[in-house]
Amino acid sequence: MKKDKLIISKKNFNSRLIVGTGKYKSMQECAKAIKLSGAEIVTVAVRRVNITDKKKPLLMDYIDPKKITYLPNTAGCFNSKEALRTLRLAREIGGWKLVKLEVLGDKKNLFPEMIETLKSTEILTKEGFKVMVYCNDDPLMAKRLENSGACAIMPLAAPIGSGLGIINDINIKIIRKQTKLPLIIDAGLGQASDATIAMELGCDGVLVNTAIAKAKKPFQMALAFKNAVIAGRQSYLSGRIKKTLYGNPSSPKSGII
Amino acid sequence: MKKKIKIKLNGKLKAINNNSTLFNIVQKNKIPLAKVAIELNQEIVDKKKIKNINLKNNDKIEIVHFIGGG
Predict the structure, then answer these.
(1) Domains of chain B, each with CATH number or no CATH
(2) ipTM for the complex?
(3) Domains in chain A and their CATH numbers?
(4) pLDDT score for A1
(5) Between chains, do A51 and B36 touch, taking CB under 8 Å as contact?
(6) Cβ neighbours of residue A24 closer than 8 Å, sequence gap 6 or more
(7) Contact check, Cβ <8 Å, A45/B69
């Protein structure tokens, strides 16, 4: 099989699994899970430095941004102004231009606020950011994001942290057919097989956080997701058989004794 | 006694010397400069220039870094 890479904004990645770095019990656990997952991109949040407790461990001491691509995320932002402020600061930390835009619209279901998301995508693209955009599984909105300069479309499978898996596979298929941009399922996956399904739908990658971090055995789940993404991608590229209503024997009919 | 001014650092009120620079604050709080971004009154600050930035009364400083997130 020829080298099958995930290409985002002209950058090549071997792994199609992106993992979040939140919700782990410790930095050590987070770093080990990432290693086992094989992920080369991790999402990170921008927050205040703890001034009072200077001994608090820093993420960069555990996950080397020279080896793993940091994808600054605007998680927790509820409007364009907050999201832009967060990503401009992220860029300032060390030149990060590849970012994940996530503008939330509702504190309970954490669905994206798409009007603010679209507005932010346009502004950030003009400022030279490469914007991977968290969005609804809505083909029309996905198209508008693409037209606004998004470098990857990241529709949700289900609400963030819900573990429900892909709720609307038809819409994901439609988005797949209409875009050449990297399509990455972001949010809502619960188990490894959900990632396989996403990849079999033709997605270019998946982003997982809670399903690994909150599994009873995060290390084992990280490995499971790694394998599930590889299996799903290989299955997609292999071209599945057609579904039929009736049986079709696997053994030849001739020469039966 | 030196005259003091009040600033807000990451949301916390602090009394500092009148002639303090942003660099003094970074140094005093042992901030790893390469791993942070700094805002002064909601404007991003060029980290190379913090020695020349004198702080005024009621200045609001935000120092942020990357933490674990989804």
Answers:
(1) 4-64 (3.10.20.30)
(2) 0.91
(3) 11-238 (3.20.20.70)
(4) 54
(5) no
(6) A30, A33, A213, A218, B68
(7) yes
List the one residue out of A209, A197, A212, A202 whose CA is nearest residue A167: A197
- Cβ distance A59 to B68 less than 8 Å, yes or no, reads yes
Residue of A24, A60, A210 with shortest CB distance to B66 = A60
pLDDT of A144 reads: 97
Could you give the residue ranges of the DSSP H alpha helices within A201-256? 210-213, 218-238
Q: What is the 3-state secondary structure (H, E, C) of A105-126?
A: CCCCCCCECHHHHHHHHHHHHH
Could B65 and A45 be called an inter-chain contact, meaning their C-beta atoms sit closer than 8 Å?
no
Cβ atoms of A114 and A134 closer than 8 Å: no
Look at residue B1 in the predicted model and tell me its pLDDT: 59
Residues of B in contact with A20 (CB under 8 A): 68-70
- Gap from A57 CA to chain B (nearest CA, Å): 10
* Residues A116, A105: Cα–Cα separation, whole Å: 9
Chain B CB contacts of A88 under 8 Å are 44
Q: In order along chain A (257 residues), what is the average pLDDT of each group of 10 residues?
A: 86 96 92 96 93 81 92 92 94 90 92 95 96 97 96 96 94 96 96 98 97 97 98 96 91 88
Token code pair at residue A201: 């739908």
pLDDT for the residue A51 = 83
B67: nearest CB among A44, A54, A209:
A44
B33 pLDDT higher than 60: yes
Query: What residue type is B47 in one-letter code?
Result: K
| Closest-CA distance of chain A to residue B26, Å | 10
The label of the residue with tokens 């009919």 reads A253
